[in-house]
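USER: Study each token:
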Amino acid sequence: MPILLCTLYTLKGIFMAVLSGKEWVAKFKGKNDISSLKAEFRLGVKSFISALEEAGAQVKINATLRPPERAYLMHWAWMIHHQRVSPEDVPAHSNVDIEWVHSDAKESVKAASEMVSAYGMQNLKVAPALNSRHTEGRAIDMNISWAGVLTVADKDKKKVTIKTSPKDGMNKELHQVGKTYGVIKYHGGAKDKPHWSDDGR
């Protein structure tokens, strides 16, 4: 599929802006490895995940460090998709030559929706922040799950037995274990289920 271009005129001359769409998801890629996190938080995350895996839980890391440009694309795609903002009103980003406005409003929303799906944000109930713990290396998105009873060690090596549901990262008892490692579950609840950070934001 050819990339659609839109010519924009500015005081500095002419440059070619690329229309929004799923092709943008491959640009400004983020990290999904623990090594990209800030030192103190990285150590806590590594220890927490090790404890979970030793207890038999499955952990899948989805995202760690996120470039500001990727945060910009994710935020405004989500906002347009949910019709919280008109494409014409999205502010420009100096490092991202994207054109959010297509031939008509329907096409603009469709393109943003394609981006939302490609970013895996279909179930996200809140717009990704423009400036967040992810852009600072202080957050991680991960899916955690287990079967049966989970007995996991906290930072002080105390064994915590979790029998309650859900058997995933939304379990409140698990949140308390994570807190001992300095890995705090997102305070917004189910709006962003995979999100953990050093302060819950």
